[in-house]
Amino acid sequence: MTDDFERMWADLAPVGRSAVSGGYFRQPYLAAETELRAWFAEQASARALRVEADGVGNVIAWWGPASGPSVLTGSHLDSVLDGGAYDGPLGVVSALAAIDVLRSRGFVPGRRIGVSVFAEEEGSRFGVACLGSRLAAGTLPWAQARELRDRSGVLLPDALEAAGLDGTVLSLADVATFVELHVEQGRDLVERDAAVGVASGIWPHGRHRFDFTGEANHAGTTRMEDRADPMLTYAMTALAANKQARLAGARATFGRVEVAPNGTNAVPSRVTAWLDARAPSEEALSALVAAVSQQGADRAGRDGTALTVTAESVSGSVAFDADLAGRLATDHDGGDWPVIPTQAGHDAGILSAAGIPSAMLFVRNPTGVSHSPAESAQMSDCLVGVSALADTLERLAR
Ligand code: GLV
Ligand code: MN
Ligand code: MN
Fold first, then answer.
1. Which of 36, 197, 264, 311 has its CA 20 to 30 A from that of 393?
2. Which atom of ligand 1 is the closest one to the Cα of 371?
3. For 182-208, how does the pLDDT look when each residue is reduced to its tens digit (9 = 90+)?
4. Ligand 1 pocket, 345 CB below 6 A?
């Protein structure tokens, strides 16, 4: 198992890696992510798994019976901009390694086992998180997805066509259970001294685009009191978001900003910023976004600017199947695994919301850092994760 895992991990290490930061740029349908999907298909074929690839970049490699109720496991291979090595690929590589473990145990699946790769999980190119799994689960209609554009204005169907994909979407109708293994994106497991844990649920979260508009003007000759500067309105809104999230025990981040015309010696005409907001309940999330929007609008009134807020990607609260999580946490040798919530979004949340009983296994992250080149996990913990996943699949697919 160690060899299989390490060999696959070494294959992936250089793909899409920045020589400057050491982080990964694996945006969907571009060269690195396309190479990763081809790599996955090769790994599947080398294991005599049947590859089902759709026209939006989702791929499933099947083992066992040709049809019938299936157990799905896997994750994603795309990354955030300048992301870490583990977020996504750990779940895919662990799933392939778990199949190797099960074969070495002589296990013959009574139910079909599929290893899935879902496309554009991070929403880093088209803005909607978990794009591939939403389409496959039927919770995002193609009629809506086909209107999405990337930062350069490229429409999703055109990006797909350029990557040789035709927009058809595979079906998850036969999937009885989904289990996603993922690197933990916090420090709960470190604090609990556990190599693996099980997810209880996912906080509701969403992305909202804030468009601040004002009046472009000369940075030197325009008196301070004569300006309509959208940068000021944005700056105050970012401070308000931080304060409101702290007060609510929630999270709020402006991590992406575009300024027009983006010149040093001009008051900008427009600032567009994206709010990532997350909260323990849907009510708290709505209240947080409303409070930040209201404070931004109030400030716009004082600055002589205007603000419009548009929801781009919203994910409801997820409570994973408690019975399944309980069985995963307790029904194995050794001590119980901790059951912990997460504030990060995952394809498992999308499948769960679509009515597919789903569960997640987390692998300890020593620093808790994620969505960063500094994301990490110990190889020994990754291998515990593979064993845990193999045990889980064996119970679910026998
Ligand atoms: C996905 O990783 C997210 O939570 O944004
Ligand atoms: Mn992520
Ligand atoms: Mn992920």
1. 36
2. 2
3. 999 999 999 999 999 999 999 999 999
4. yes
